[in-house]
Amino acid sequence: MPFHIGSGCLPATISNRRIYRIAWSDTPPEMSSWEKMKEFFCSTHQTEALECIWAICHPPAGTTREDVVNRFELLRTLAYAGWEESIHSGQHGENYFCILDEDSQEILSVTLDDAGNYTVNCQGYSETHRLTLDTAQGEEGTGHAEGASGTFRTSFLPATTAPQTPAEYDAVWSAWRRAAPAEESRGRAAVVQKMRACLNNGNAVLNVGESGLTTLPDCLPAHITTLVISDNNLTSLPALPPELRTLEVSGNQLTSLPVLPPGLLELSIFNNPLTHLPALPSGLCKLWIFGNQLTSLPVLPSGLQELSVSDNQLASLPALPSELCKLWAYNNQLTSLPALPSGLQELSVSDNQLASLPALPSELCKLWAYNNRLTSLPALPSGLKELIVSGNRLTSLPVLPSELKELMVSGNRLTRLPALPPGLRELSVYRNQLTRLPESITGLSSEATVNLEGNPLSERTLQALRDITSAPGYSGPRIRFDMAGASAP
């Protein structure tokens, strides 16, 4: 009868009640052994002891002789005083590990041999796992183990099989920690502690940002829903936990991403050298990928609400989802924009090569499009509050919305301004071709600021400005203008 190695492995947390329920009618041999040794441990230690026994009977990938010693030593630590002498951990270099009953009869044993075999003997049943030495390239070798100190990798557990128990996770994480270069050793040790705590406490959030990591272990806690690994030196990521909802990996050296979990809702991966993206999960709501080297984007999920693709090398954008509320795409190489969703509220497309803008949605509140090649603007939505279009080639402006609070149009070719909304708080129109001003400019609030410098205002206009703003009791806006370079009256 083989050992029970089906998919129904022990969960991370096991109540004492479940310990006894596990021993069903077709009891696996390791559970029969447990029935004989459970009295070695007090009730508070039995869960951890059983998980350790499970890992001994089913050695996870990456198992080393040190791991075997540590598991038997852990059992000695957990056992009642007196019973620890029945647990032999091989700590003096021998390759035989065992647990004896009160009559000194073997309950469970493990033998390692020089051929790379890990043999478990349990209640009359024996199972051998073929172990191979790790090579420098990480391949499985076929040579003999070099003495008792060799590092073994179990071949019975495929690399794609996720760990099921804390002991299996710990084996993978411990191997990763031991492989750390000297400068990364402390960071990896701290991360392993965080992952252990996350696993033991059932915490859904794992934050290992700013840990100085160049790699991650092959497996992360499968239950987590939020993973933060920002500001490290990662060049690749392992397979991601299947339940992940939020992934933050900004400030690394990633050039590509693995397959993204289907339930992912938020992806933040700015400031990496990414050149392409994988297919995006259908439920993704937030995608922040600015500061990369992307030249194109995949199809965007229909429910996407926030998209930040600034500071890339995009020459075009795909069709935009109807649910999109915020779009930031400044500092790219865009020459045109697709149709804008009707519910879009914020649009930032500055520092591109746009010669025109599409029709603006009625819900738009903020429009930032400075440093482009715009010669005109479409009709502005009535609820627009910020209009930043400096550094273009505009010669005129459309009617300004009554709700507008900020108007920045410096560095254009404007020869006149339309009527200004009374609620305007900031007007920057320096370096244009204005020769006259609308009367509404002096009717702005005293909280407003106006910059008119660098315009060829007529002498009559300048004199009127000086008289108005210097008059006793003046309560209008703060206006900056220069007298030099005035045009003819």
**Tally of helical segments:** 7
Structural class: alpha/beta
- CATH architecture level-2 label of the largest domain: Alpha-Beta Horseshoe
Show unreliable segments: 1-26, 132-160
Tell me the number of strands.
Answer: 20
Following the backbone from N to C, one meets helices and strands in this order, namely: HHHHEEEEEEHHEEEEEEEEEEEEEHE
CATH class placement of the largest domain: Alpha Beta
Radius of gyration: 34 Å
What is the 3D shape?
Answer: elongated
Mean pLDDT across residues:
84
The share of residues in extended strands comes to 15-25%
Taking the sheet with the most strands, its summary is:
14 strands, parallel
Order of strands, main sheet, comes to 7-8-9-10-11-12-13-14-15-16-17-18-19-20
Description:
- GO terms for molecular function: transferase activity.
- It is found in: Host cytoplasm; Secreted.
- Belongs to the LRR-containing bacterial E3 ligase family.
- The chain is of the alpha/beta class and 489 residues long.
- It has three domains: 16-154, Secreted effector protein SifA (Secreted effector protein SifA fold, 2-Layer Sandwich), CATH 3.30.2440; 180-333, Leucine-rich repeat, LRR (right-handed beta-alpha superhelix); 349-489, Leucine-rich repeat, LRR (right-handed beta-alpha superhelix), CATH 3.80.10.
- It contains seven helices and 20 strands.
- The chain has helices at residues 16-21, 29-37, 43-57, 65-78, 166-178, 185-201, 459-470; strands at 87-88, 96-100, 106-112, 117-122, 125-133, 152-154, 205-207, 226-228, 246-248, 266-268, 286-288, 306-308, 326-328, 346-348, 366-368, 386-388, 406-408, 426-428, 449-451, 478-480.
- The protein has a 14-stranded parallel β-sheet. Strands 1-2-3-4-5-6 form a six-stranded antiparallel β-sheet, with helices on one face.
- Helix 3 runs antiparallel to helix 4 and helix 5 runs antiparallel to helix 6.
- The longest helix is centred in the middle third of the chain and has 17 residues, at 185-201.
- It starts with 15 loop residues before the first helix and ends in a 9-residue tail after the last strand.
